[in-house]
Amino acid sequence: MSRSSVREAQVEPLPALVAVAVVCLSVGAFAAVRADVLPAGASDAPADTVLSDAVDAATTTGGVVAPERLDASVAPADYAVNVTVTAGDGEWTAGERPPPDAARASEPVPVRVATGRTRPGRLTVAVWS
User: Which residue has the higher pLDDT, 107 or 45?
Assistant: First the structure.
């Protein structure tokens, strides 16, 4: 085996590092342009954060969601929110009717349906811009 065959298909370290840097910069530039050009989708809406805020706003000191405390003002700037609680046959809503493509999040919560009566329910938020 000749000595030259040992070095076949090898690249000097500096050109390899330059090539890797060029690829990284290209991917970074693409991501920056994509973020500026394409509009934010429904999946970009902060539904999980809004859900946490809505649960906190509607929960009484006893840890039970009170439907009369539902508040759609938990929406971050530039977003609209619909907050809905369902328990048994009851449904309580705050906010505008959400579009079909709104980002949604929900979690099970105890709901006060009457004085001294609590039922398992679900609090759902829909967030859109």
Answer: 107
pTM: 0.64
pLDDT value of position 105: 92
The tokens of 100 are what? Answer: 């079909």
Q: In 77-116, which positions are buried (b, 16+ CB within 10 angstroms) versus exposed (e)? A: eebbbbbbbbbeeeebbbbeebeeebbbbeeebbbbbeee
Position 62 scores a pLDDT of: 83
Question: Contact 88/113 with Cβ under 8 angstroms?
Answer: yes
What is the residue type of 5? S
Amino acid 106 reads S
> Residue 109 in contact with residue 65, Cβ under 8 Å?
yes
